Amino acid sequence: MTPPVDSKAPAMTPDGRLGLREKLGYASGDFASVLFFKTFSSFLMFFYTDIIGIEAAVIGTMLIVTRIFDAANDPLMGILCDRTKSPHGKFRPWLRWMILPYAISGILVFTVPDVAQAWQIVYIYITYTLAMVFYTMINIPYGALMGVMTPNSAERTILSSFRFYGAYGANFLVQGTILVLVVWLGGSADGQTATQAGYVWTMVLYALMAGGMFLFTFASTRERVQPPKEQKSDIGKDLAQLVRNKPWVAMIFIGVTTIIWIALRDASILYYFRYYVVGAVEETSEFVKLATTFNLVGTLATLAGVACTKLLTDVFGSKRSAYVWLTLLTAATACLYYFAGPGAVTYILVLQAITSFMMGPLMPLFWSMIADTADYSEWKCGRRFTGLVFSAGTFSQKAGWAIGPGIAGWLLGYYGFKANVAQSETTIEGLRLMMSFIPSAVAVVAAGLVFFYGITRKVEVEMEASLKARALES
Asked: Could you give the CA distance from residue 284 to residue 246 in angstroms, rounded to a whole number?
């Protein structure tokens, strides 16, 4: 095994197992990331339509344009990380370097000036693009860090689960506090109405938390897995080899389609509750209570699913099989939202618990599978470029987060949505479909694509043993 980059690295057992502090440190990084990303993915479109007053279709187009531009930057950041030289490694330094621009850009996204709407649209294009660029510059190295903390594939699955304890912990915090905080901090005349100022001050709080969490990740983790000693930097060879890595290519499409259906549904939740479940637009407190409860139930169930990732992987026999079956089961139960009446709150909450539990292991499995494709490249071709490999995972997820909410915005426009008024029967029907059959159909596609991911459990074992033997020989 290659010696650690940092001689003060936390203890790791000979078979690649990590200590609890390092796992918690890694989890903190995704907590910091998701404080912003969950706010953007689930609440930003609602903020732009119902607080700022911009049409949903305009926001849908903006999300697709800016996020696809941002996603295209991911491979460049991966290449840059792979070529970073620092006493702290290739990836960890970026966590410290990018904290301040990351925090400030997230706050600016919600600081939309009170000017003509055309200029507001220009402003949101610029600030959201900047926020996503800085997110890329801190999240690509964070994600790639998992691939170099340990060479043990099974331990990476556990580490990936810890990562999503952090992610869904941030989900829980955002979903449980944001609608309350924006009212409390907003200074509205009636003390019950969300305001722009409330969103801005809420983001200031989230930014301070995120900065502290990233610093803890930097301090508590170390990089241990290094490229082969004889490997020379060659971007052309890296890219040529990458496109021949069939499991890696499969994971791009799996990531895009998985996030599309998750993001489409997430972007629909607030509209579904305000205009269908509650129905009375003026009942702000009831809407906040029900939407917050729904989100918190989902996050708790998701965390339970994350905790069962290793168990469910063993039950289904491999990461690939677990991903397929969990996706299909989630899609099937999500269809049942269509049959929920507006007053069937208990039914809706039970469905949320079931679908969220089955969805919980998907992201830990996804990132563990991405890490295995980096090993696959080294195993088959003798070259390792962890940053570039992980940038594909982030690229695919950002593309999904661009397309999913973008589709949601277009669908709202197609079904005739108008902010802050009672909706037509056509719009209500559209909201029901956007919570059920439409995302479920995309989920089925995602499950089908997993069959093109060729790393079975047998391949994992063979690959890990071979790479360990090579490391001992070097």
From this structure: 50
Strand partners, 14: none
DSSP letter, residue 48: I
Q: What span, in angstroms and rounded, lies between the C-alpha atoms of 26 and 232?
A: 29
Dist CA 223 CA 336 (whole Å): 45
CA atoms of 168 and 31, how far apart (whole Å): 7
Is residue 57 within a helix (H) or strand (E), and if so which, with residue range?
helix 56-82
Which residue shows structure tokens 């903006």? 62
pLDDT, tens digit (0-9, with 9 covering 90-100), for 114-168:
999 999 999 999 999 999 999 999 998 998 898 889 888 778 888 888 988 898 8
Q: Is 354 exposed, middle or buried (0-12, 13-18, 19+ CB in 10 A)?
A: middle
Instruction: Select the more confidently predicted residue: 229 or 456.
Output: 456
469 burial via Cβ count (<10 Å: 0-12, 13-18, 19+): exposed
Statement: residue 4 has pLDDT above 50: no
Q: Is 192 exposed, middle or buried (0-12, 13-18, 19+ CB in 10 A)?
A: exposed
Residues, the chain: 474
CB atoms within 10 A of CB 219: 13
Whose CA is closest to 231, among 461, 460, 2? 2
135 touches 96 (CB < 8 A)? no
The span from the CA of 316 to the CA of 330, in Å, is: 15
Of residues 319, 276, 320, the one with CA closest to residue 294: 276
Which one-letter DSSP state was computed for residue 187? T
Angle of helix 425-434 versus helix 246-272 axis, rounded to 10: 140
Distance separating alpha carbons of residues 63 and 203, to the nearest angstrom: 19
- Taking alpha carbons only, the member of 60, 110, 43 closest to residue 288 is 43
Residue 80: burial class (beta carbons within 10 Å; 0-12, 13-18, 19+): middle
pLDDT tens track for 366-385: 988 988 888 888 888 777 77
The C-alpha atoms of residue 51 and residue 46 are separated, in whole angstroms, by 7
Contacts 24+ apart (CB under 8 A), 5-11: 5/87, 5/88, 5/89, 5/222, 5/223, 5/224, 5/226, 6/87, 6/88, 6/89, 6/222, 6/223, 8/222, 9/222, 9/224, 10/220, 10/221, 10/222
